[in-house]
Amino acid sequence: MNLIVTCARHLEPETQEEINKILGILGDPEPKITITNMSGILTVNTKLDPIVVVAKIQELILDEPWSIRYCLRIIPIQKISETIIEDIEKVISELRDLIPKGDTYRISIEKRNSNMSSQDLITKIANKIENKVSLENPDKIILIEILGAKTGISVLRKSDVLSVEKTKRSLSD
């Protein structure tokens, strides 16, 4: 999986169709889209760069806001690991170079179907990164999306995660 798509409960099939159509337009005619056992969550494996996909979907919304009806958030995922603290730490070690020296960061964790301690995870990850923390306005976000036994991890700018509602709202400003 390299994208997580959220939608309203019970609209997963419509969302699956919508994201399939969008990815087809963007150049991936055969993405692998899975409706998870978690309500309102789909995982997508596309051959396209997930961060570029989010940027292009954002452009699409700005041009044609009505073209996206079911997707709520689209989150790019750079690496996947088992939901085990040591495995997640190892992936963070691989990705920490994506935070340039001098940039600030924040760790954001979204847990679904997991009882892992967020505080333990944040402490272990923060010990591996020398940069300063900024909770309010970080340059980069270390995003940890726990979906049961699998965890998606990314180091992103705030703008790399697409909130369809916020993007549509920005049109009326």
What string gives the helices and strands in order?
EHEEHEEHEHEEEH
Strand content: 25-35%
Structural class: alpha+beta
Work out the radius of gyration: 16 Å
Count of folded domains: 2
Layout of strands and helices, then pairs:
Blueprint: E1 3-7, H1 12-26, E2 32-35, E3 41-45, H2 50-63, E4 71-76, E5 79-82, H3 85-95, E6 105-112, H4 118-126, E7 140-147, E8 150-156, E9 162-163, H5 164-171
Parallel strand pairs: 6-7
Antiparallel strand pairs: 1-3, 1-4, 2-3, 4-9, 5-8, 7-8
Describe the structure.
The chain is an alpha+beta fold and 173 residues long. The protein folds into two domains: 88 residues; 78 residues, 2-Layer Sandwich (VC0802-like). Helix content is 33%, strand content 28%. It is built from five helices and nine strands. The strands form two sheets. It has a five-stranded antiparallel beta sheet with strand order 2-3-1-4-9. Strand 6, helix 4 and strand 7 form a beta-alpha-beta unit. The longest helix has 15 residues. It is globular.
